[in-house]
Task: structure prediction
Amino acid sequence: MLNQRQAKMLDLLETEERISVVDLARLFGVSDMTIRRDLEGLEQNGAISRVHGGAVRAQSRSYEPPFSLRLMRRNEAKRRIGEAAAKLVSNGETVILDAGTTTLEVARALRGLRDLRVLAMSLHAANLLSEDPRIELMMCGGIVRFGEQSMIGALAEQAFATFSFDTYFLSVGGIDVHSGATEYNPEDAAVKRAAFANARRRIAVADGSKLGSTAFARVCNIENIDVIVTDSTAPQSKVDEMHNAGVEMIVV
Result:
């Protein structure tokens, strides 16, 4: 599992082109050697590329930050997004809950509020909802993806074919007007497309760092998304672009 310093380093690389060992050692009050070990761990996970005296962000669109790392980042923003998204659900709805750290906050916000039928696409979300007597919990089949705990494969995709759901909460690796909603892992993207095709309303939940970004595998076009719930760190230009494309934008 990555530590808090490493999570902060990745946060810095969202706004900085490069981070230096000297500056990081001063910021965290630790030795240059400690920072180099942290950077080595991030490089082994594919999150950064080390350069002389520091590091730059990894450029690959197929790199997916580990779930354990994503759990440590933007927690307050994800909590607000989850609470705002949960308020969009009415009593008695049928809901698909995608795999991801932001949809995990949606799951947390749904507990104890209303009578729902929820199909969870990850074991993380299922564990959160399984003890709530007001929620009828369903699981899709398939293969459990290591680390992510998401369900993938043909069985997972087929689970949606015989149902029609009211609402799908979609998580994304990136979302952009031109490239649409994208995900890092093609197998995850395939299950998302199956869920997408069998929901009446599609709501994407994405913190501000995801807007304007593009990951490896396409899930859907931007015009096929009804609502995007994001936070106030989202670039206003990207919020405006998506609003102009016909998507309802909720910024918290």
User: Anything to note?
Assistant: Residues 98 and 121 are 5 Å apart (CA to CA). The radius of gyration is 19 Å. The chain has two domains: 4-59, 69-251. The chain has a mean pLDDT of 92.
